[in-house]
Amino acid sequence: MSETHRPPVEAAEPAAGVQAGARVLAVIPARGGSKGVPGKNLAPVGGVALVVRAVRACVRARRVSAVVVSTDDPSIAEAARTAGAEVVLRPVAIAGDTATSEAAVLHAMDAHEALSAGSTDVVLLVQCTSPFLTSDEIDGVVAAVVDGGADTAHTVAPFHGFIWREPAEDVAESGSAYGVNHDKATRPRRQDRPQDLLETGAAYAMRAAGFRAAGHRFFGRTALVRTDPAKVLEIDEPADLRRARALAPLLDPTAATPTRDDVDAVVLDFDGTQTDDRVLIDADGHEAVTVHRGDGLGIAALRRAGLPVLILSTETNPVVAARARKLSVPVLHGIDRKDLALKQWCEENGIAPERVLYAGNDVNDLPCFGLVGWPVAVAGAHDVVRAAARAITTVDGGHGAIREIAAWLLGPTLAR
Question: Which structural domains are found in the chain, ordered by start?
Fold first, then answer.
């Protein structure tokens, strides 16, 4: 086994000044520009934008006193505020590709303290690019500093792989690849090797005074907080985003279907959501579609439960209006911008968009998905729509998908 070299630990003052009840500030850097994944911080995973996922994890953490998003982008700022964070607008000087996360954290901490007229004891750096970070993990790094006496702490995951490195280009022809954390001539069993720990890049906690003095996040005594290796994923490339979206139904603690407590209104697309997306046309050009009786029962149950229901469609078609009359549900159809119509309807009815469940199946539903708190795709929806959804029905549109949604909200008896 090759020798492990450890860097010297910097001297630091004891952490006695950080006590229980400390003021803990979580800072989430979220620039608008991203070359690897354009618009990355607003990209949805499990139907929720990455920046919103990070804010929610911090807000739910028991030991976090305040949450600040540092950004240069108005859309990110709006999403962050809606999710419950303060927003600090980042100046151009620290908003470029070469700007460090530390610079954003220091600026945000200064801005927050100026507004709150109070000092920060512990500051957190929380990354949007780790979509499966939990509030328990955030509390864990805070506890390592506040209770454990560490100067800094960050999340890590157990790692058992053999790391290799290729030789430098100038010796590539004659040189040989070599082991970094092992001697390639010896292949010890996993249980016989020292445990390697992979930095996840998700959450870092630092004593605020020490962070200001050092200017970086690894000063003094560093504690490591272990996390589940299965959840470790940093989104830097489009392939990472695709993988996160595929894993979200398995890893999200919030991937469960919504309940009545989560939703104040239900908005439904028509074609492909309440129908099987086929249109029958007779010789005179009259159109007919197929709907599911169970969906009608589900919509009636939602209305009896006091949930407003709206049908929203881009089609100008008498079939849509006829179905809405049959169900005694208001309808907005012939709409070019469904998201604008939905936003206006929410404002007129005093309904917060984040408390709306919107069910759809095709790409023209995506703007509405970005507006509501519960974007739902029917089983046969377009792949892009399924990837952006927070929940997906088990049956296709026109085959009882709306009744299934009603059963989520009101109870399983509706599924009969």
Answer: 15-247 (3.90.550.10), 260-415 (3.40.50.1000)
